[in-house]
Structures are given as C-alpha cells and as structure tokens.
Design goal:
The chain is α/β, with parallel strands linked by helices. It contains four helices and six strands; from the N terminus they run ββαββαββαα. The N and C termini lie far apart (about 35 Å).
Length: about 140
C-alpha cells in the first residue's frame, strides 16, 4: 500500500489518499457490498459498472475528487471517495469504478487513528473520543 498522491517533500511519509491491492480480485457488486458494510453506509453512489474485477483500489476520505486523475494514472480498478459531483461520475469513462461512500462515512475512522497517535505521542494527555453524532447527512432508503 502506498500514497495515492505522495508529498513532494516526504513521499514515503505523507501524502493524500492511499492505493493498495486485494490478494484476490473480486466482482464489482461484491466490492460495493464490502465497502457499504465496512463504512456502515445504507447506500452508495457509484459510476456505471465496468464489467471488470476489482483488485487495485484507490481511496481518499472526504472530498477526494481532486485525486481522481491520480487514481486513473495509477490504473486503479476502483476509487472510493466522497462528495462526487454529478458530472464527475462521467470522468472515468469506464476505466475505474467510482464510488461515493459519503463524506462522514469515509472519514469516520480517522478519529480513532488520531486519538491513538495523540496517546502515543503524549502518554499523559487524556485523549477521548466524543460520542456525539457529527454526520449532518441523513438517508431515506425506500
């Protein structure tokens, strides 16, 4: 696994998004089911199915559309991000399965990572994660 867009100053240590591969390719519907279950989302928006198996996956939590060209350049089979505008779903032209998992849903796990880093760096600091619901989006599922 490596950064989708590595930092120019420290490419091995920081960057935007990630890209990695499954050991075994999976069907697109299976991939969408896995994403929905993993991020606990009742629904996903996605581009037209490509008809190809998913092995190489790029992702960027939150509004990651600016990194779509990087996912295409690195030949990702799927790109998971959020806040994708309507016309951006046409950009891949069947070259990648574009998945909008929701802004909150794709960033919700960051709080645990940040809390863990703070606790390691400052062991005497009482870092806690609030239980407040911070997702401003609600879903109506028919």
């Amino acid at each position: 696994m490596h950064f989708l867009q590595p930092s120019e100053s420290e490419p091995e240590l920081c960057g935007a998004g990630m890209i990695g591969e499954f050991e075994t390719p999976m069907e697109e519907i299976g991939f969408l089911e896995l994403v929905a279950k993993t991020i606990d989302s009742p629904c996903l928006r996605h581009s037209a199915l490509t008809g190809r198996k998913i092995q190489k996956v790029a992702l960027c939590g939150g509004s990651g559309t600016p990194f779509l060209p990087d996912a295409l350049c690195q030949k990702a089979d799927a790109y998971l991000t959020a806040d994708i505008k309507y016309h951006d779903f046409f950009v891949p032209e069947g070259n990648v399965l574009l998945v909008d998992g929701g802004h909150f849903e794709t960033e919700q796990f960051t709080k645990e990572l940040l809390c863990e880093l703070i606790r390691k760096k400052f062991p005497t600091f009482a870092a806690e994660i609030a239980e407040t619901r911070t997702n401003a989006v609600y879903y109506f599922v028919k």
